[in-house]
Amino acid sequence: MAYASNDGVQLYYEIDGDDNADTEGTTVFIGDLGYGAWQWGWQYPAVAGEYTAIVPELRGTGRSDSPAGPYSVSTFIDDLMIVLADAEVTSVHLVGAGLGGMIGLAIARQHARVTSLTVIGTAPAATMRKQNADADLETLWAPPTDRESLTESVEAAVSSSFSHRHPDVIDRIVEWRVDEDASRPAWESQVAAIHEFDLTDCLYEITVPTLVIHGMADTVWPPTAAKQLAMELPRGEWAPIEDAGHLVHAEASRVVNDTLIGFLTDH
């Protein structure tokens, strides 16, 4: 557990890896809109044994500061560069979900230190012109003090079959969200970063190997947009997960972990 500071904004991150972990292949998990570090609870332990793993909490969530917004993707990139410098990390594999996937795409376009990129449940813009569709971000929000609304929000982010099979997991996620998720002002500041971001016409500039994982029952980001993203990236790999929603890395964690670790091993 550590903190880095970007112009007075304290940024919390966790770093882990055993003595034999591959520090050259440090894996950094970048979180989704409004969610705390809990969202990587299924991937972090699986990766940290073989690789050094870092989970920063975006400004506005968890134990990081929540300065007044709006925020931008470039601000989140600056934050992450500060965290990597504090952790003395050079080359990285980036894994980003939703907003974190957008941040990962932008970093991979700008910085040579990215070895590979994995994006989960994301798209290159909030408005997907080629699909004539917009991201449905509001379903991800719920007041951290309202457990009923949190439950409805979690259920909207997973498939209906998962909700019926695993109500205990839904309850556990709700408890984590109470403790770690963004307040409404911080959430709206993060939303602003999504709405000002658009790499639709620049994807050819992202030349690192990129794995695009997407739940085919995702109602937040249309699967068609994610498939198009994979097709337009020069080294994109499409990994659809059937009958899984936006939180595909939680509800289909075993499949996602196997796919992710295989990709990391290859690169």
TrEMBL record:
Keywords carried by this UniProt record: Acyltransferase, Hydrolase, Transferase
Alphabetical list of InterPro entries matching this protein: AB_hydrolase, AB_hydrolase_1, AB_hydrolase_fold, Epox_hydrolase-like
Domain of life: Archaea
Pfam families named in the record: Abhydrolase_1
Protein name in the entry: Putative hydrolase or acyltransferases (Alpha/beta hydrolase superfamily)
Organism: Haloquadratum walsbyi J07HQW2
Domain AB hydrolase-1: from-to ranges: 44-251
GO function terms (MF aspect): acyltransferase activity; hydrolase activity
